Amino acid sequence: MTSRRNRNMLVNIVAEIRTLRTLLLLLCCLLCEAGDETVTLQEVEGTTITLHTGITGIQSDARIQCFYGPEKLEEKILKSQVFKGETVTDISERFKERLQLDRISGALTIRNISRTDSGVYLLQVITGRVSSRTFSVSVYAPVSTPVIINERGKPSVISTESCFLLCSVENGEDVKLSWYRENERISITNNTDLSVPLNLPLQIQHHDINTYICVSANPVSNKTTSLIITQLCDISDDRPRSRFPALISVGLFVLLIIILIISGIRLKKKKNTRQVMNLSV
């Protein structure tokens, strides 16, 4: 009896092990079939984005749900399923007026997205299996237009001096500021301290004929400002020549004075000579 009991216990243990192995295998198959992948999306705030499942022709009785979190998937923001022949969709208050679900493809559209909507989204379609896709969404404000000024406040008087310029822009998340000469980037800067504006200097010669632009950019937008050298730097080619009339005028004035002095001396000599002659007579 004891021997038979032991055999039965052994058979039960083997059966439980096989069942457990089967369940583990089934779980692995489900995870493999889920096809989970991460899609990175970067958008400008105020626009509309769509989270695509990559599935077409979803069955009407499929359950669709979406989870959201700034870092971890902690909040269920959507749940849609067919109940008694009717589709029932629940949307969280945070996204209540901005979410639209396509029941045929499972695509989820978010309107008027804001920077606070950045984070991780998990979209699941549950039928006979679980199909899921993870989205990493980053939302940015559009960058500001950079401003170029003469760093010393006014153009130089001497045309051979360098011109010191400064390009500035309001800082923001992942904003970079660059100087380009023609199509070549010659300098770049950024700062993780968003309270500090970005500044990028540039020194050029007044006679420089290259095209320069200052570009502010983040991953979803960019703004450019072209450098107008004639407005900020003194590069006038006729400035050295424009001094000649002044020099000529000064020279003529000095020559006139010399002539007047010489004429005065001659008149004085003639006057003295006449006086001497009158005295001799």
Structure description:
By secondary structure, the chain is an alpha+beta fold. 28% of the residues lie in helices and 36% in strands. It has helices at residues 2-34, 229-232, 239-280, and strands spanning 38-44, 49-51, 63-69, 75-83, 86-91, 99-101, 108-110, 119-126, 130-140, 147-150, 162-169, 176-181, 184-189, 198-205, 212-218, 221-226. Strands 1-9-8-3-4-5 form a six-stranded mixed β-sheet. Strands 13-12-15-16 form a four-stranded antiparallel β-sheet, with no helix packed on it. Strands 2-7-6 form a three-stranded antiparallel β-sheet, with no helix packed on it. The longest helix has 42 residues, at 239-280. The chain is rod-shaped and about 140 Å long. The N and C termini lie far apart (181 Å). The model is unreliable at 20-35 and 237-242 (pLDDT under 50).
